[in-house]
């Protein structure tokens, strides 16, 4: 039985007396063409192990199981675990895991590298993505459906309102692109916004060379803490790190950045140069 059509999805929900929880961002896909495009975007092969976050009742799981070597579906809602176990009872390449994707140790679920493919609940998109990128898991590629405006922030270039901490965090670790836009009409229930499927190809080497990665992200967070301030004022006595005006002025002059510019105008390469110079000045004054 194909899960991803309106009548079959509704029948599964009725059979198991399931009411969808808005708090968990439960919007189930009911369009096979969209699911096929997600699987195609992830370039899944018979050699791939895939971790799916938030499988719901398994429409995407079912599609991926036909192609991938193994699909590990991590579901937080304990009501859905018996439903998933029943649906995938006859599949020898699907494993259902009850757990919170913000806490699960993915390296314990998979030996070797893996891909992440998911229709992510909107409310945990950013923390999930950054956890996957920052915690050293052996992820090759991440293909996820997210709220369209969040996807636009991930791929944004310097100079616009969408460009910020998330843009730099994602682009530091990956090559990011929006693969296609998804209308609300292909979900039950329908969300109020459009979605985007985004492809993040994880780079083993970071986009820029840094002396200290943690310091770099403190600089970025400080710079965007109050977006309308100049870069000079944002970094002076910033909330995430204690820098003096002299240190900031010296660093900006050394790397050739106009102190009147705002953070949204600086590229990731400029932030890297600024961070490396500031790190030397900061450490020398300790």
TrEMBL record:
Q: Which reaction does it catalyse?
A: adenosine(1518)/adenosine(1519) in 16S rRNA + 4 S-adenosyl-L-methionine = N(6)-dimethyladenosine(1518)/N(6)-dimethyladenosine(1519) in 16S rRNA + 4 S-adenosyl-L-homocysteine + 4 H(+)
Show the InterPro entries listed in the entry.
Answer: KsgA/Erm, rRNA_Ade_diMease-like_C, rRNA_Ade_Mease_Trfase_CS, rRNA_Ade_methylase_Trfase_N, rRNA_adenine_dimethylase, SAM-dependent_MTases_sf
* Residues covered by the Ribosomal RNA adenine methylase transferase N-terminal domain: 34-204
Q: Name one GO cellular component term.
A: cytosol
| Keyword vocabulary terms for this entry | Cytoplasm, Methyltransferase, RNA-binding, rRNA processing, S-adenosyl-L-methionine, Transferase
Q: What EC designation does it have?
A: 2.1.1.182
User: Subcellular location, in the record's words?
Assistant: Cytoplasm
**A single GO molecular function, which one?**
16S rRNA (adenine(1518)-N(6)/adenine(1519)-N(6))-dimethyltransferase activity
The positions annotated for binding S-adenosyl-L-methionine are 27, 29, 54, 75, 100, 119
The record's family statement is: Belongs to the class I-like SAM-binding methyltransferase superfamily. rRNA adenine N(6)-methyltransferase family. RsmA subfamily.
UniProt function note: Specifically dimethylates two adjacent adenosines (A1518 and A1519) in the loop of a conserved hairpin near the 3'-end of 16S rRNA in the 30S particle. May play a critical role in biogenesis of 30S subunits.
Protein name in the entry: Ribosomal RNA small subunit methyltransferase A
Source organism per entry reads: Orenia marismortui
What is the primary gene name for this protein?
A: rsmA
